[in-house]
Amino acid sequence: MSGHARARGALVVRRERPSDVAEVESVVSAAFAREPGVRPAEAALVAGLRTDPGALPRLTLLAEAGGRVVGHVVCSRGWVGEAPVLGLGLLAVAPERQGEGVGSALMHAVLAAAEALDEPLVALLGAPGYYGRFGFVPAAGEGIAAPDPRWGDHFQVRWLAAARGSLAGAFRYAAPFDEL
Q: What is the SS3 assignment for the chain?
């Protein structure tokens, strides 16, 4: 770790608590800001996932450094056909902390937690170059159809709990994703 990263405080990854909601909203809004003063759809998604029946608090994690939230990741219930799986979305890192390993720490933590919970698969929409390093591969090649075929190789999956190839069919996210 560089001296610069140490000076910012040790990174701690933990479950989100109700008292963290405002700080998480701020990080997600900053990470996905497109227009000043306009709340990005991603912030509304995270808020919607907290109250959805598909919410999984054990897989809603944040990264904290120096007593400040600097990143957030959430998995919610998704389905391949009728089989329960996980939908990861979204991963957010405070702009001033991007490129420092915060996102990687969150990804490793949430995938390890999902594995420990015997979840079979995690699906996400994201950059193949980034998520490939965590074992994600294009979903279509694994027999999993994206909710929107235009997503192509950006819709990816990672098998967990020795479940490789045990599921096939159309993936669907928790209901708040339908509002994006």
A: CCHHHHHCCCEEEEECCHHHHHHHHHHHHHHCCCCCCCCCHHHHHHHHHHHCCCEEEEEEEEEEECCEEEEEEEEEEEEECCEEEEEEEEEEECHHHCCCCHHHHHHHHHHHHHHHCCCCEEEEECCHHHHHHHCCEEHHHHCEECCCHHHHHHEEEEECCCCCCCCCEEEECCHHHHHC
Within 10 Å of residue 152's Cβ, how many Cβ atoms?
A: 12
The full set of domains in the chain, from first to last, is: 3-179 (3.40.630.30)
pLDDT tens, position by position, 47-82? 999 999 999 999 999 999 999 999 999 999 999 999
Torsion of the alpha carbons at 117, 133, 87 and 142, rounded to the nearest 10: -100
Q: How far is CA 66 from CA 1, 56, 87, 101, 125, in A?
A: 16, 26, 30, 16, 30
Q: Which amino acid, 35?
A: E
Whole-model pTM: value is 0.92
Low-confidence ranges of the chain (pLDDT < 70): 1-8
What's the chain's average pLDDT? 93
Examine residue 160 and say whether the peptide bond preceding it is cis (omega within 30 degrees of 0). Answer: no
